Amino acid sequence: MSFAATCTDIFLKDGHILACYAVDQYGSSVYATLDLNGFIGNDDGYFTWKGVNFASSAREIRLEGTLLTAELLKKSGSYRERQNIDLNDRIANENGDLVFR
């Protein structure tokens, strides 16, 4: 199940840490975080799930709902127009922990 269905107060911390209050196995709301730099990369100005450290080559990083958006650096040295990746596609809440799947 997508994380957004069982999380509230979803926000981005330090430009690369997904944070929220996630429902755990007891029905309680617990603070949870996941460092997106461990799972998302930049491939010539496009987000990719098969990469790491996207934030080191991104500017204007934002979270819009479940969409992570940013201007990403291209190999040419210029920035590509704003790109996005839907975190709901690969991030889940497992008993109050945010996990990459």
Automatic annotation (TrEMBL):
Q: Which InterPro entries match?
A: Cyanovirin-N, Cyanovirin-N_sf
- Which residue intervals define the domain Cyanovirin-N in the entry? 2-100
Q: What is the top-level taxon of the source organism?
A: Eukaryota
What the entry lists under Pfam families is as follows: CVNH
Entries under PANTHER family matching the protein: CYANOVIRIN-N DOMAIN-CONTAINING PROTEIN (PTHR42076:SF1), CYANOVIRIN-N HOMOLOG (PTHR42076)
Q: What is this protein called?
A: Cyanovirin-N domain-containing protein
